[in-house]
C-alpha cells in the first residue's frame, strides 16, 4: 500500500503539471477570446475592443470585402477561400499518393544506394526552402508557371515530400512480410497486394501524411507572397497579410479579426477531427534503413 507521503508527492506532481499547463495555455486562450471580441467591436482602445457591431461580418454573405474608409479593393472572399482549399487539398492528396509509392519502394526493395537515398531525403527535408526562392523563381518563370497556383502546388509537394516519405517508410516497415507474402500466394500480384492488403494496414500513416499536407498547404504564405502577383490567385494567408501589415494603406481591426477567424476555423475543425491519427504517428520512425 502506498504511504501518505507517496500519495502527497503524487498529488503535488499532478498539481504542478496541471498548473504548468494552465500557465502555458491561458495566454493563448485569452488571445483567441480577444480575437473573437475584436471581430464584433467598433473600435480599439489599445488592445481592448470597444463597442459592438455586426458590420465586420457583413461581407461574409456576399464575399465582397469593402472596408469603410479604404480605397483599395480586395479580392472576393470566396474566390480566396476556393484557392486556399484547392492548394490544401491538392497538396495533401499528391503527397499522400507519392509518399505511399516511394515509401513502399524504399521499405520493401533492396537496391544499391538505398541508404544514401534515405540520407539524401533527410538532407532535402532539412534544407530551408526559402534559400531556394531565387532559383525557384527562375525555374517557374522559364516554365510559364509564375503567378499560377500550379507552380505553388509543385513547390509545396516537392519540398514536403521528404518528410512524408520518411513517415510512410516507417509505417511500411511495421507491416509484416508474412502478410504481404500471403496475399501473393493467394494470387495477388505486387500491385494488388500493395493496394488491397498493405495500404489498409498503414491507413494511420496515410492519414498523418494527409493531415500534414493539408495543414501545410492551408497555411502556405511565403511562396504565395513570392510567386503570386495577381489577386485572382490569392489565398487566405495573403489576405490576412494584406490586412495585418497595412500593405494596402488601411487597417481595420474588426475586419482583420473576422478574416483571421474565417482562416482559422476550418483548420481547427479539421485538426479536432483528425488528431487521433496524429497521436499514432509515434510508430512511424521505428523502421530500419
Overall description:
This protein is mainly α and 289 residues long. 69% of the residues lie in helices and 2% in strands. The chain has twelve helices and two strands, in the order H-E-E-H-H-H-H-H-H-H-H-H-H-H. It has helices at 4-38, 59-62, 77-108, 114-126, 133-143, 149-173, 177-185, 190-201, 203-219, 222-227, 236-244, 253-278; strands spanning 43-45, 48-50. The chain has a two-stranded antiparallel ribbon. Strand 1 (43-45) and strand 2 (48-50) form a beta hairpin. Helix 4 (114-126) crosses helix 6 (149-173), helix 6 runs antiparallel to helix 9 (203-219) and helix 9 runs antiparallel to helix 12. The two termini are 47 Å apart. Mean pLDDT is 83; it is low at 283-289.
- Measured on Cα atoms, how large is the radius of gyration? 24 Å
Secondary structure class reads: mainly alpha
Count of helical stretches? 12
Low-confidence stretches: 283-289
Q: How would a crystallographer describe the biggest sheet?
A: 2 strands, antiparallel
Along the chain, the helix and strand elements come as HEEHHHHHHHHHHH
Look at the structure and give the mean pLDDT.
Answer: 83
Numbering strands along the chain, what is their spatial order in the largest sheet? 1-2
Amino acid at each position: 500500500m502506498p504511504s501518505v507521503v507517496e500519495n502527497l508527492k503524487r498529488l503535488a506532481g499532478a498539481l504542478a503539471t496541471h498548473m504548468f499547463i494552465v500557465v502555458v495555455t491561458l495566454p493563448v486562450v485569452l488571445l483567441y477570446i480577444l480575437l473573437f471580441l475584436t471581430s464584433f467591436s467598433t473600435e480599439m482602445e489599445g488592445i481592448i475592443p470597444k463597442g459592438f457591431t455586426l458590420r465586420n461580418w457583413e461581407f461574409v454573405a456576399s464575399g465582397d470585402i469593402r472596408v469603410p474608409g479604404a480605397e483599395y479593393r480586395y479580392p472576393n472572399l470566396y474566390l480566396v477561400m476556393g484557392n486556399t482549399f484547392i492548394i490544401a487539398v491538392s497538396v495533401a492528396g499528391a503527397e499522400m499518393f507519392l509518399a505511399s509509392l516511394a515509401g513502399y519502394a524504399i521499405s520493401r526493395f533492396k537496391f544499391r544506394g538505398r541508404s544514401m537515398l534515405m540520407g539524401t531525403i533527410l538532407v532535402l527535408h532539412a534544407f530551408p526552402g526559402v534559400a531556394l526562392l531565387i532559383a525557384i523563381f527562375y525555374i517557374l518563370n522559364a516554365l510559364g508557371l509564375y503567378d499560377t497556383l500550379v507552380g505553388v502546388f509543385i513547390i509545396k509537394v516537392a519540398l514536403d515530400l521528404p518528410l512524408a516519405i520518411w513517415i510512410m517508410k516507417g509505417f511500411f516497415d511495421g507491416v509484416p512480410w508474412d502478410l504481404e507474402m500471403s496475399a501473393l500466394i493467394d494470387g495477388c500480384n505486387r500491385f494488388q497486394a500493395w493496394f488491397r492488403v498493405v495500404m489498409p494496414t498503414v491507413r494511420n500513416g496515410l492519414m498523418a501524411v494527409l493531415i500534414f499536407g493539408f495543414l501545410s498547404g492551408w497555411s502556405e504564405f511565403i511562396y504565395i507572397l513570392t510567386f503570386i502577383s495577381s489577386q485572382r490567385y490569392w489565398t487566405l494567408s495573403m489576405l490576412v497579410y494584406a490586412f495585418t501589415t497595412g500593405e494596402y494603406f488601411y487597417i481595420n481591426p474588426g475586419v482583420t479579426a473576422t478574416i483571421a477567424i474565417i482562416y482559422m476555423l476550418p483548420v481547427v475543425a479539421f485538426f479536432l477531427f483528425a488528431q487521433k491519427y496524429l497521436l499514432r504517428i509515434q510508430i512511424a520512425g521505428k523502421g530500419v534503413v
